[in-house]
Prior knowledge:
By secondary structure, this protein is mainly α. It is built from 6 helices and no strands.
Amino acid sequence: MAKLLFKNIFGADIEFFKTDEHEIVGEFLSEWVKLERTISKLASQYRSDLTVTGQKLPPPSIAFKGLTGMKIISEKISRDIDYFRVIRNKLVHGKIEGNEIKSDYPHKIQDITKIILNLAKD
């Protein structure tokens, strides 16, 4: 849309260039969303244990701590999730720059997601 608007106003095309930094940030956030969805899926199996009345589940950022307290998620995985949650929050709130996201972070989050997904299947 921005490209079309620019062309209509200035009569010229504009190009946007993706950098490796943008790719890594995009992958990081995409993998984070998948992880949160997977945590929510696992949490839904323990709804009555994670909620007072069995109604709405807490957000994934709270649910994984409850699942850790119940010994469903290991302490190590919980620490890893918390580490990446802090990175994600710093990134989206402008406390760190995209170039501070290491290239292996998306893959590490993907590995955590697979572990949580396996727990959800049991």
